[in-house]
Automatic annotation (TrEMBL):
SUPFAM superfamilies: alpha-helical ferredoxin, FAD-binding/transporter-associated domain-like, FAD-linked oxidases, C-terminal domain. Coiled coil: none annotated. It comes from Thermohalobaculum xanthum. Its cofactor is FAD. This is FAD-binding protein.
Length: 979
């Protein structure tokens, strides 16, 4: 039977709302978005609080304490063992409690709030020549509070240690509401206040258990399981009580402020990518390579290489640094200040590899060797692929997924090869295999056997593998938890790993600091069974009934022609929470709300289609609200390593709502624009009065929902009317497709493109309906309104008209990215007779010219312009489809023109989104993140280039500058060359 979200405790929600200034959420949709993390588990919170201040945290904890309800502090929600899910009041610290309190560069210390993201801290530290070196792969969204609670490690722990080694003190809010500073304590010191008595009790436990700790705690590079009782053993030295809270997973106290130890930024760095013909030989080599004193040795196995090659954003990078078909790579990093020393060690790496029997140019040795990466940009590309290892692994499009539960056991390097070989044998014994990557330098490898946890067999297999694997690790005197903590998945095994006495001491510490047991219970001590399916994302009743979908979700399994499988690709690792680079996720960058993430939307969709949010949740108003701020930028299509395509999923929701409720008037006006466009253009002076008469602006907002404060696009009476016959299209070198936006609003762009193509000596025809009826259309406006049937009809009509020309070898070229790229993205998933090969032949204007230039076939005379610089803003769909390179290349053909790419997310206009009264504010906020400030700062000698109609309108509206399509720039340059 399908699990239904439990009703909220209304009394609890009311009390929380009255006590805090921040946001309190008690509805099932909001709580459901916090019911999962990056683990296999799902537990519905009692309520969610987004506190604005530490006072809010204290007040919320007091309300929960009085109600006897647990509390769970949460940062990025990327824990892999179930640490950040619980039937509790969840405190989301990431939105507001993310300040850098202070930086003391001289002392190399920083004080931070728990919701601060690691990359944000390191960006602030960079001008000081410092960084926080616990460089976890999730640094773009991992919060310092979460990292501290988990004792996170990172790839360079061989040099810098774990979080425990880099946390100096923690100012904590205790479970009973008192505050205490956990820091260094001298043995025998008589500290005042509550911390004094607590320190004495904790140090007494350390002294009492010192021998047992020495006997039972694994002596390996990485051990993050259980509580750090060894931190309480003084042996005549100062004890840092903060280290007890490090790794405690929010079960002992709430960390209000964390004092961190900083390190100097490495000045120089080189990488050597070591190739091995077998996985075993790579593992055996690690113990020898570590003698060169690298800062890191990271593993990438053949499975990860193959999966990365299937992900567009990673494929070019993999081809750069992978030579041949290795079974494993070890990425060895040297980062000494003296670059000459790094190069010396890199040379020594070649020698060690040769001594081990791996050298490409020696026929007497096995195939293998070292690919060098000395260029910093090349290094960054390699490191990013490795950092995305988890997400790459989770991109498998199958019913079974790599599952984290024995993922980061740690053994000594001398045992590593034998350990991995034996663990692989355990996997095979149970009918599966594993994926391997991560930290070979410290004996902590991330391994995930592929299992289907929707089935009882998959869950029982997981249990059996866990028991055998942990028994083997104990035999090696290793640690069953080497980086990702305990959570639900490993806490159960502490008794076998540490013994009864140590587990009793863990419980004693827990009870001393949290006597009511309300701080994230069930983690580290007194845990549930790790294979309790009632706690899992796919519980025994998990089902998704068959339903109609708009698209064919190729390569995915499940209901809705694979939509279920596409939704379930989200592994909750939170790559969409990044805000410092890329495009994804524009609305989250403005609101910082979980609802407005690709992850938040995907979780809501999964819960809805599986019935967990009640009947009709997929078409509900709450679902519409979840999707409202998605601007369909498609960035997730490219930047989400598991390929969650939220733009298409939004269309599925809109189409389902349209089938159920009909299409509202405003959306019908947007969708049907191609049908009435010629009439509107003929009546342009009359229709454009809306922008000139304030009363009409206000009326359009009240009646239709178009924001009165925005000018709508201006219809043109001189719209682009040129057409061609079918024979002209078939005989042409290039067929120019006139999209609705440029045809009716900016025809000068199409005229410029036609002029450029002809000056390049090409025969140009115009995409025209064979029967001479209304102009062709891509169907984009219908898709944006959820009018899927109409969109498919428009696409089919246009595809039929273009196909003969494509079959005769012509290229179809157009200007508007959102329109042209529809034939590459949505059309193959909608039309039975339109292939991806056809879609690839429908090209953007700049793609076509760049391809001809690369082939040496572009005879286009160009002359310098008055402008010295072209500031280029990329349309989201250009970025998503990886076609920004061509526009940069063709602009670079203009003599003397320097091209600068504006680092920006979505412009925020996004078709109708920026014109809607309810979203105009968010639209402008998106543009203000980076795009508009950069445009305003541009000098008079710069031109602004933007190929997207919406982008140009946003720039004009927000910065008061006219942006040009690249066709206009090339037309002016070529005209000057001919005069």
């Amino acid at each position: 039977m399908t699990r239904i979200a439990t009703p909220a405790d209304d009394a609890l929600v009311r009390k929380l709302s009255a006590a805090v200034e921040g946001t309190v959420m008690g509805d099932a949709f909001s709580r459901g978005r916090y019911a999962t993390d990056a683990s296999i588990y799902q537990m519905m919170p009692k309520a969610v609080v987004v506190p604005r201040s530490m006072g809010d945290v204290s007040a919320a904890m007091q309300v929960a304490r009085e109600a006897g309800v647990p509390v769970l502090p949460r940062g990025g929600g990327t824990s892999q063992c179930g640490q950040t899910v619980n039937e509790a009041v969840v405190l989301d610290l990431s939105k507001h409690l993310n300040a850098i309190v202070s930086i003391d560069a001289e002392r190399r210390e920083a004080v931070v709030e728990p919701g601060l993201v690691l990359d944000h801290l390191n960006a602030a530290l960079k001008p000081h020549g410092l960084w926080y070196p616990v460089d976890v792969s999730t640094s773009s969204r991992a919060t310092l509070g979460g990292m501290t609670a988990n004792n996170s490690c990172g790839s360079r722990s061989l040099r810098y240690g774990t979080s425990r080694d880099n946390v100096l003190a923690i100012d904590a809010l205790m479970a009973d509401g008192t505050r205490a500073r956990f820091g260094e304590v001298q043995p025998g010191a008589n500290l005042p206040g509550p911390i004094g008595e607590l320190a004495r009790d904790l140090l007494a436990i350390g002294a009492r258990e010192a021998d047992e700790i020495a006997a039972r705690f694994p002596d390996v590079y990485r051990r993050v399981g259980g509580y750090n009782l060894d931190a309480l053993v003084a042996n005549g030295r100062p004890v840092n009580l903060a280290h007890l809270l490090v790794g405690s997973e929010g079960t002992l106290a709430f960390s209000e402020r964390i004092t961190l130890k900083l390190s100097p930024l490495p000045r120089n760095k080189v990488l050597g990518v070591c190739h091995f013909p077998s996985f075993y030989k790579a593992m055996d080599a690690a113990q020898h390579l570590v003698k060169l004193d690298p800062t890191a040795i990271e593993l990438v196995d053949a499975t990860m290489i193959a999966l990365a090659r299937d992900i567009p954003i990673f494929r070019p990078v993999v081809e750069e640094f992978v030579r041949g078909a290795p079974e494993a790579l070890l990425i060895v990093e040297f980062a000494e200040d003296d670059q000459a020393e790094n190069l010396r060690r890199l040379a020594a790496l070649h020698d060690v590899m040769a001594d081990l029997g791996f050298r490409w140019d020696d026929p007497g040795k096995a195939p293998g060797g070292v690919v060098e990466a000395i260029d910093p940009a090349f290094q960054s590309r390699i490191i990013e692929v490795r950092k995305q290892g988890l997400n790459i692994m989770m991109s498998m499009k199958s019913e079974g997924k790599p599952v984290s539960f024995v993922e980061d056991c740690c053994v000594r390097l001398a045992d590593l090869a034998e350990y991995t070989d034996r663990l692989t044998a355990i996997f095979r014994k149970h009918g599966t295999n594993g994926t391997w990557y991560a930290h070979a330098s410290v004996g902590t490898l991330h391994v995930r056997p592929v299992l289907n946890l929707k089935q009882d067999l998959g869950v029982s297999t997981m249990r059996a593998i866990a028991e055998e694997a942990f028994e083997m690790v104990r035999g090696y005197k290793g640690s069953h938890s080497g980086e990702h903590g305990d959570g639900i998945v490993r806490s159960e095994f502490h008794r076998q790993m540490f013994g009864e006495r140590i587990v009793a001491a863990f419980e004693e510490v827990k009870d001393r600091l949290d006597p009511g047991g309300l701080m994230n219970p069930g983690k580290i001590v007194r845990p549930p069974k790790m294979d309790d399916r009632s706690l899992m994302r796919f519980d025994p009743g998990y089902t998704v009934p068959e339903f109609d979908s708009v698209f064919r979700w190729e390569g995915h399994h499940g209901a809705g022609r694979g939509l279920q499988g596409a939704v379930e690709m989200c592994n909750n690792n939170g790559a969409c929470r990044k805000t410092l680079d890329g495009v994804m996720c524009p609305s989250y960058r403005v609101t910082r709300d979980e609802r407005d993430l690709t992850r938040g939307r995907a979780n809501t969709l999964r819960l809805a289609i599986s019935g967990q949010l009640g009947p009709d949740a997929f078409t509900s108003d709450e679902m519409a609200e979840t999707m409202k701020l998605c601007v369909s930028c498609k960035a997730c299509r490219r930047e989400c390593p598991t390929g969650v395509d939220m733009a298409k999923m939004k269309i599925e929701v809109q189409a389902a709502r349209a089938r159920r409720n009909g299409v509202p008037l405003r959306e019908r006006l947007v969708g049907h624009m191609p049908r009435y466009a010629r009439i509107a253009a003929r009546l342009a002076p009359l229709v454009n009065l809306r922008n000139r008469i304030p009363a009409l602006r206000r009326l359009s907002e009240r009646a239709l929902g178009f924001a009165a404060e925005r000018d709508l696009p201006e219809w043109r009476g001189d719209w682009f009317r040129t057409e061609s016959s079918a024979s002209e299209m078939s005989a042409a070198d290039v067929v120019l497709f006139a999209d609705c936006f440029n045809r009716y609003f900016e025809p000068q762009n199409l005229r410029a493109a036609e002029a450029v193509l002809k000056r390049a000596g090409l025969r140009v025809a115009h995409a025209t309906a064979p029967d001479g009826s209304r102009p062709l259309c891509c169907g984009r406006t219908y898709l944006s309104a959820g009018m899927a049937t109409e969109a498919k009809a428009e696409m089919a009509r246009t595809a039929a008209a273009l196909r003969p020309a494509l079959e005769n070898g012509a290229s179809v070229v157009g200007l508007e990215p959102s329109c042209l790229l529809t034939f590459r993205d949505e059309a193959p998933a909608l039309l039975d007779d339109w292939s991806a090969e056809f879609g690839a032949r429908v090209m953007l204007f700049e793609e076509f010219l760049a391809a001809r230039a690369a082939e040496g076939r572009l005879a286009l005379p160009l002359a310098p312009l008055d402008a010295q610089t072209a500031l280029l803003h990329g349309h989201c769909h250009q970025k998503a489809m990886n076609v920004m390179g061509p526009v940069q290349k063709v602009l670079g053909l203009v003599p003397g023109l320097k091209v600068e790419l504006i680092a920006s997310s979505c412009c925020g206009m996004a078709g109708a989104f920026g014109y809607q009264a309810e979203t105009v504010g968010t639209s402008r906020a998106m543009a203000e993140l980076s795009l508009l400030p950069r445009v305003r700062a541009a000098g008079d000698d710069a031109i602004v280039v933007a190929d997207g109609t919406s982008c140009r309108h946003q720039i004009a509206d927000g910065a008061g500058r006219a942006a040009l399509h690249v066709a206009r720039v090339l037309e002016e340059s070529s005209k000057r060359a001919l005069t």
